[in-house]
Design goal:
The complex is a heterodimer of chains A (344) and B (337).
Chain A: E1 2-6, H1 7-21, E2 27-29, H2 57-65, E3 66-68, H3 73-85, E4 91-96, H4 104-111, H5 114-117, E5 127-132, H6 147-151, E6 156-159, H7 164-176, E7 180-186, E8 193-197, E9 209-212, E10 217-221, H8 225-238, E11 243-247, E12 250-252, H9 256-266, E13 269-273, H10 281-292, E14 302-305, H11 315-321, H12 325-335, H13 340-343
Parallel strand pairs in A: 2-3, 2-4, 4-5, 5-7, 6-7, 10-11, 10-13, 13-14
Antiparallel strand pairs in A: 1-8, 6-12, 9-11
Helix pairs in contact in A: 1-7, 3-4, 8-12, 9-10
Chain B: H1 13-38, H2 53-60, E1 68-70, H3 76-81, H4 86-93, H5 127-140, E2 147-152, H6 159-170, E3 175-181, E4 184-185, E5 188-189, H7 190-193, E6 210-214, H8 218-233, E7 239-244, H9 262-269, H10 274-284, H11 290-313
Parallel strand pairs in B: 1-2, 2-3, 3-7, 6-7
Antiparallel strand pairs in B: 4-5
Helix pairs in contact in B: 1-2, 1-10, 1-11, 2-8, 4-11, 5-6
Classes of the chains: A alpha/beta (344), B alpha/beta (337).
Chain lengths: 344, 337
């Protein structure tokens, strides 16, 4: 049964559904409940996270399971890794993915490597939820998209949902998964509404989704950029060009087959990734297709990314920083040999 | 350790007027940003310092441009106390080209290195090692300068607190760690998140002095800071001062602050107000009179209004500046495609 709810509420539901089913699922993070040990505060008045995403969960599950932590990322993320390895199934919130600087060791050297180092005799069923993305005027230390950095680490999985329904299904799948999963939530998508099934369901990790079918060019887009690409596809359709939009949804594992099959059909590939351009996921996907799908290509692969710079604060600069539908359209026109001067 | 109530110091009128002016500037600046933000004019997040003025001002009264400070999310007050230009600050918060960081940093990264203001900081706990490093420079280059790390009660549980202070202690660096314990880390009470009763108690484990002061009392902060700065300048190493204070606004603008008690809010906005208390002190000690202070307040209001007008009439940065200043010298900073 579908109904329209927000991306934020879909995530809240995923947490509630899994916590009802499994008492080992807990949520740990900074102000995930909020106002811990404040006598006069009613649970319904508590923050529920800095953006209110987890609001209401403390009323149903209590403060032992919706656990506020000190501002100590290395401490609580590391504790979540070990709680997972010793029998819990925690979800921990790294408020902004930029804060990974404070706890990278716990993720990269502990959580992601335990299983391998211990010869397969350990598992870390931990989900790290974290906010990413530019466009919120949140400046250089609260706006990055760092999924590429995590995707480079063997032993953990990375998920970047683009719609409310998928956010719910992918988060439940991430929590069910026995590996460490880093789950990226674009802060500018939280208010986005969409049809979301009720109840408990999963959306497979490692399975891409074709958001729009087309025959002329494949556009692989990540997270919010799926929507930028869809906007560009509408403009391209008006010019007689049919773009196929592929949303990988999880970056590790990456659904190479769906991407390669699409490129085999369209013979053109553009990857849209709002992260910085060096060593990012767009580059990784481009390399994969150059390696395994070269014979399908009629033109060079193009990457549309942020510039190689930190995220600027000023709204005029931040708008320029992000990929735009116009840039995608222009790139497609160049790639397919259409004369932009005649069609704009 | 007890809050210090004894006056060891008399203050001259010039110094007192400077402190009053800076506290008044911070209050009016923040109240103005609060009002402007609520109208939807300002982009992004702002975290306001109103209520904590006595801390930044009481400490920075002992500093000069050779001295460095590190700051927090709540950095506007530190900027003003360290002498940053009000126009440049306001323009930065508006994201304008004329801002202290040319619009690239915003409220959370506002900085002026020429004034020794090493930046507001978006990372909780980010300041401890930075202040220690600035103290290392001061020591190795024998500048005579000191470094001050302003940090909130939230940061005192962060690992960098331990690492930064320990290094400053083992290397005997001229660093003053100033805790602004306003009772809440975001929406979480200090008493929940910290295993100690006072942040200053933790100083003992580094073998450095830890002092608790009433952070609403500018004179108490001023005197404690003088002791710590003197120690640092004399090569006697780091100190920790814990200022018990309160923020008048929420963690960020838009925070409903339901975790705060209504009585505590009331008393801090009235009787315990840092500016009212310092005003009383000045009047009692004949450091100024009502007329003089009222006139100063009016001048401050006008300067803040001028800063708003400056910011509003300034241009946004040019598109070309998007990729400048990533490096000193590096040519390939363009985007793909």
């Amino acid at each position: 049964m579908g109904r329209t709810i927000s991306f934020s509420d879909a995530i809240n539901e995923a947490l509630a559904e899994t916590m009802r089913r499994d008492k080992n699922v807990i949520l740990m993070g900074e102000d995930v409940a909020g106002g811990a040990a404040v006598d006069h505060l009613q649970d319904e008045e508590a923050w529920g996270g800095v953006m209110g995403v987890t609001q209401g969960l403390v009323q149903e599950f209590g403060r032992d399971r919706i656990l506020d932590t000190p501002i100590a990322e290395a401490g609580y993320v590391g504790a979540a890794v070990s709680a997972a390895a010793t029998g819990m199934r925690p979800v921990t919130e790294l408020m902004f993915n930029d804060f990974i600087g404070s706890c990278l060791d716990e993720v990269m050297n502990q959580g992601a490597k335990l299983r391998y180092m211990f010869g397969g005799k350990a598992k870390v069923p931990l989900t790290i939820r974290t906010m990413h993305g530019a466009g919120f005027r949140a400046a250089a230390q609260h706006s990055q998209s760092l999924y590429g950095m995590f995707t480079a680490i063997p032993g953990l999985k990375t998920v970047v949902p683009s719609t409310p329904a998928e956010a719910k299904g992918l988060l439940i799948a991430a929590i069910e998964d026995d590996d460490l999963v880093v789950f990226f939530e674009d802060k500018t998508l939280y208010n986005m509404k969409g049809d979301v099934p009720e109840g408990y369901y999963t959306t497979d990790l490692g399975k891409a989704d074709i958001k729009r079918e087309g025959s002329d060019v494949t556009i692989v887009a990540i997270g919010k950029q799926v929507h930028t690409a869809l906007e560009a596809a509408e403009q391209l359709a008006a010019k007689g060009i049919q773009a196929e939009i592929v949303d990988p949804r999880s970056l590790s594992p990456l659904d190479e087959d769906t991407i390669l099959a699409s490129v085999d059909k369209t013979n053109h590939l553009i990857v849209v990734d709002e992260a910085t351009p060096r060593c990012n996921v767009a580059t990784d996907i481009a390399a994969m297709v150059a390696d395994k799908g070269f014979d399908s290509l009629d033109a060079p692969i193009k990457r549309i990314t942020a510039p190689h710079s930190p995220v600027p604060f000023s709204p005029v600069l931040e708008d320029l920083y992000l990929p735009s539908a116009d840039t995608i359209v222009r790139t497609v026109m160049e790639l397919t040999g259409e004369d932009t001067a005649m069609t704009t | 350790m007890e809050a210090s109530n004894t006056r060891t110091q008399t203050m001259d009128s010039h110094q007192a007027m400077w402190m009053y002016q800076k506290m008044s500037e911070i209050r009016h600046f923040e109240d103005t940003v609060h009002e402007t933000f609520s109208k939807g004019v300002l982009p992004g997040f702002v975290h306001l310092y109103a209520g904590e003025e006595a801390v930044a001002v009481g400490v920075c009264a002992h500093l000069n441009d050779k001295d460095s400070i590190t700051s927090t999310h709540r950095g506007h007050g530190h900027c003003i106390a360290k002498g940053c230009d009000l126009n440049g600050m306001m323009a930065e918060i508006y994201g304008k080209e004329t801002g202290l960081c040319n619009g690239k940093g915003g409220s959370m990264h506002i900085a002026d290195v020429s004034k020794g203001m090493l930046g507001a900081n978006g990372i909780v706990g980010g300041g401890f090692p930075l202040a220690t490093g600035a103290g290392l420079t001061a020591k190795l280059q024998d500048t005579g300068g000191v470094a001050v790390c302003f940090f909130g009660d939230g940061a005192n549980n962060h690992g960098t607190f331990h690492e930064g202070i320990n290094m400053a202690a083992i290397w005997n660096l001229p660093v003053i760690f100033v805790a602004e314990n306003n009772g809440y880390a975001e929406a979480t009470p200090f008493s929940y998140a910290s295993s100690c009763e006072n942040i200053a108690d933790r100083a003992a484990s580094y073998g450095i002095p830890g002092e608790i002061v009433d952070g609403k009392d500018a004179m108490a902060v001023y005197e404690a800071a003088e002791r710590a700065v003197t120690r640092a300048r004399n090569g006697e190493g780091p100190s920790l001062i814990e200022c018990k204070t309160y923020r008048n606004y929420g963690h960020f603008e838009g925070d409903a602050q339901k975790y705060k008690g209504s009585e505590e809010r009331e008393e801090h906005l009235k009787d315990k107000d840092a500016i009212l208390q310092f005003r009383q002190y000045m009047l009692q000690h004949n450091l100024s009179n009502e007329e003089g202070l009222n006139k100063l307040d009016e001048q401050v209001k006008a300067s803040i209004q001028a800063a708003v007008e400056f910011a509003e009439s300034s241009d946004y940065p040019d598109a070309g500046s998007l990729i400048t200043d990533v490096y000193v010298n590096y040519t390939n900073t363009g985007r793909e495609s």
